[in-house]
Write a structure and sequence with these properties.
Immunoglobulin-like, 10-stranded antiparallel sheet, globular, Beta-galactosidase, Chain A, domain 5, mainly beta, 2 domains, 7% helix
Length: 512
C-alpha cells in the first residue's frame, strides 16, 4: 500500500472534495452498462457522460460499514492485497489489475469493469482479495466497491507497480526502477481560485483485457463533477518509461471559465536556490526541479520552482504549445542525502499535445508549505476559451513518465541554480549562480563567443560574469542585482553566440 507521505499528500486533495460533498445519495450512475452493446468502444462512455451531464450532479455514496467507516492511517495501510488476488495475475498477459480497498481518506467509490472481448463485467467487492491484518472484519460484507486500482507489470517473476488511479481524478505512473512522485489529474477546475477549487471524480472505469503479445493496456473512464462530465480513454504502454496517451471529451453542465488540462502536481520543499524556511540536515528536498515549456514558436523555457512564502501564480501565454512538464533534473543522490525518500528517483512528467490546443497559457501555482509531505507545486495548460453548456470540447495528449523526456533541445540546459545574499560597499545584493550544460558549449566549430543575455523586470544588475564550469560542456553564469522596493523581480537569462540562443531560457521570480 502507500507510505505515510503518499497517503497524506493525497489526503490534501481527496479530503477537500469529501468535505464539500453532498450528503450520501444513490450509488454511482453506471447502470446502463448492463445493456451496453458489444464489442465495447469509447462511445459507450461518451454517451453515458452525455446522459449524466443532462442531470444535476449527485455525489456518490461515501458511507462505509464498520470497521471501514473509521479507519485510521495505520488501519488503512495494514490492509494488504492477498498474494495472487490481482486480476489476470495468473494469465501471463504482462499486466495485472489490483483493486484498492475503500477507507480512511479514500471513501469515494470507483466502479471497476473488465472488458474481455464481447463480455463486460463489473468487478464486485470480494473480501477474500484482502488481508486485513489485525482489523476485525465480519464474514458478511455488502458490495462496497473499491476506491481505485493499481496497474501491475509482470517483471522478474513477480509484479511491479507502474500506475495507480485513486482519489478524485488523480493518477500517477512510474518509469522502471523509480519511486512515486509527481501526480497527474484528469482535470483541474479553479485551482488557486478565490471561489474555491472543484475536484472532479472518476465514477467508473472500464479496463480492456490486453493480449499476451501487447505491451498496452487501455482504460476508459467516466468523469463527473458539479460543473461537467467527461469521457476519457487512457492508453498505457510500458518500457523503460511509462507512456499514457490521454483522449478526453468534456461536456459542461455549467459555464467553466477556469480549468486546466494535463494538470500535474509535485513537491518542492527547498533547494539551493531557495532555502528560506529550511532547518534540515539534508541539502535539498524536492521531487521536481522545475517547469519546462516548449512554446508554439519552439522556444525552450525552464522555470525553477520554489516553496514560496505566500501563494503565487505565474502565467506563460502561448499558442499551439509543443510540450511542458514538471521535471526532476537532479539524479545525484548526494544532492539530497536522503536514503529513505530518494528524491533523485522521482519521475519527470512530460506532456506533448497530440492535437492543436490553440491559444491559452501555461499556469504554474506555487503554494507555501511547512512540510515535505505536501505537493505544493501545480502546473497545467489553461485554454483561453472557457467551457459552455451545450458545447463539447476534446483534448488529447501524450504523457511520458520518465527519467528524462524524449524531446530534448539542441541547446544547453540549466543544470544547477543557487542563490544567496552578499553585501558589497554596505549595500545588500542578491547573488545568483546558474550552470548551463550541453554538448554545444564544447563545440570547437562555434565561431562566436558565448555571452550571457540577462534582463530583470525590476532592480539593478550590478555585475554579470561567465566562466567555465567543472567540465568543458558546462558554463557558469554569476550575477548580482539590487532588488527594487517591490521586493519582486522577474529574471530572464540565456546564453547567446552570434546573436543566436545556445541555451534554453532560464526564468525565475525572485521575491524577498
Amino acid at each position: 500500500m502507500y507510505y505515510r507521505r503518499e497517503v497524506l499528500k493525497l489526503g490534501l486533495q481527496a479530503g477537500a472534495y469529501l468535505t464539500a460533498a453532498a450528503p450520501a445519495v444513490a450509488q454511482t450512475q453506471t447502470a446502463p452498462l448492463a445493456d451496453a452493446p458489444a464489442p465495447f468502444d469509447s462511445n459507450i462512455v461518451l454517451n453515458m457522460a452525455r446522459t449524466l451531464a443532462a442531470k444535476p450532479f449527485k455525489a456518490p455514496d461515501t458511507s462505509l460499514p464498520s470497521p471501514f467507516s473509521s479507519l485510521t492511517y495505520e488501519n488503512y495501510v495494514s490492509i494488504r492485497s492477498q498474494a495472487g488476488s490481482a486480476i489476470w495475475s495468473a494469465d501471463g498477459l504482462g499486466f495485472a489489475i489490483e483493486p484498492l480497498h475503500r477507507g480512511f481518506i479514500f471513501t469515494t467509490p470507483m466502479d471497476i469493469h473488465i472488458v474481455d472481448g464481447d463480455k463486460i463485467a463489473r468487478v464486485p467487492y470480494d473480501r477474500a482479495r484482502f488481508d486485513f491484518n489485525k482489523l476485525q472484519v465480519g464474514p458478511d460484507i455488502k458490495d462496497i466497491g473499491y476506491s481505485g486500482f493499481r496497474i501491475l507489470e509482470a517483471r522478474n517473476g513477480g509484479f511491479d507497480e507502474r500506475a495507480i488511479f485513486q482519489g478524485a481524478s488523480f493518477f500517477r505512473a512510474l518509469a522502471k526502477d523509480q519511486t512515486q512522485g509527481v501526480m497527474a489529474r484528469a482535470l483541474a477546475i479553479r485551482t488557486a481560485d478565490p471561489r474555491g477549487e472543484e475536484f472532479p471524480i472518476i465514477r467508473a472505469v472500464w479496463i480492456e483485457k490486453p493480449s499476451a503479445a501487447a505491451r498496452v493496456i487501455v482504460i476508459h473512464a467516466l468523469l463527473d463533477s458539479e460543473s461537467l462530465t467527461g469521457a476519457y480513454r487512457f492508453t498505457l504502454r510500458v518500457n523503460d518509461a511509462t507512456i499514457i496517451d490521454t483522449e478526453s471529451t468534456l461536456i459542461p453542465r455549467l459555464e467553466v471559465d477556469n480549468y486546466g488540462i494535463a494538470a500535474m502536481q509535485a513537491t518542492s520543499f527547498y533547494s539551493p536556490l531557495d532555502r528560506h524556511n529550511s532547518d534540515d540536515l539534508r541539502p535539498a528536498v524536492y521531487e521536481v526541479s522545475g517547469l519546462r515549456m516548449l512554446s508554439g514558436k519552439e522556444e525552450w523555457l525552464w522555470r525553477p520552482v520554489s516553496n514560496r512564502l505566500n501563494l503565487q501564480g505565474s502565467a506563460f501565454v502561448d499558442e499551439s504549445p509543443r510540450g511542458f512538464g514538471l521535471l526532476q533534473r537532479e539524479r545525484d543522490p548526494g544532492a539530497f542525502e536522503d536514503d529513505e525518500q530518494h528524491w533523485e528517483r522521482r519521475p519527470s512528467l512530460w506532456i506533448e499535445p497530440i492535437a492543436d490546443w490553440g491559444a491559452g497559457q501555461f499556469e504554474l501555482i506555487e503554494i507555501p508549505t511547512e512540510s515535505e509531505i505536501n505537493q505544493n507545486i501545480n502546473a497545467y495548460w489553461r485554454p483561453k476559451e472557457g467551457l459552455k453548456p451545450g458545447k463539447e470540447t476534446s483534448f488529447s495528449y501524450r504523457q511520458f513518465w520518465c527519467w528524462s523526456p524524449p524531446s530534448k533541445p539542441a541547446l544547453a540546459t540549466a543544470t544547477q541554480a543557487r542563490s544567496g545574499k552578499v553585501v558589497v560597499g554596505g549595500k545588500t545584493r542578491r547573488r545568483i549562480l546558474v550552470d548551463f550544460t550541453g554538448d554545444n558549449l564544447a563545440d570547437p566549430t562555434r565561431s562566436g563567443e558565448i555571452k550571457a543575455s540577462l534582463s530583470l523586470s525590476g532592480g539593478i544588475v550590478t555585475s554579470v560574469s561567465t566562466f567555465a564550469g567543472k567540465t568543458p560542456k558546462t558554463l557558469r553564469v554569476l550575477f548580482d542585482f539590487e532588488p527594487n522596493s517591490d521586493n519582486m523581480t522577474e529574471i530572464r537569462l540565456l546564453l547567446q553566440s552570434d546573436g543566436q540562443a545556445v541555451s534554453e531560457t532560464w526564468l525565475y521570480r525572485w521575491t524577498a
